[in-house]
Amino acid sequence: MGTKGDAERPTVTHAVRYIGERVTAALERVDPKAIGRAVDLLARAPQIFVYGAGRSGIIGRAFAMRLVQAGLRAYVIGESVTPIVRRGDTVFLLSGQGESYSSMQTANIVRREGADLIVLTARPGSKIAHTATVLLTIEFAEDRDRPRYAPLGTLFESASLRLTDSLVAELLRTRGETEDSMRRRHAIMV
User: How many domains does the chain have?
Assistant: First the structure.
């Protein structure tokens, strides 16, 4: 049997509810016009490049995988087989704080080469946000429960996965793709 202190400790159930509610509310505030512009850039780009550092990079890799399965040519920046970014391409950059050195370097290269840059960040006033062709912002107000239930960048990363998966759903619709056509492009692992 638990003690009174057990009720005050974070639990999986509380964290799941907290993260789900906060992420859903934040995603409902993302500018639909910016989402539409991002989908247009992704749909028409000859090549799509995805970049993020740390856990944002993991979300970016998942997004790139789905883009390939949706029939688009997508790469993860930093992989040894990634080609050069060129004018007309689109780069999708995820950066919660929008200030990391590697993200800024990537944005500078993208802009120099003349490619379009979609930035997904939690900080619309960040350095990286000012480099964007299209800015997607997922903002979270601070509260006392966030450090217990969603430490560090958990809310941004969870929201980023949901948003990028939702972008894929819209790309499937606009391109006439289906889950079956995606499955045919899904890697066969042994």
Answer: 1
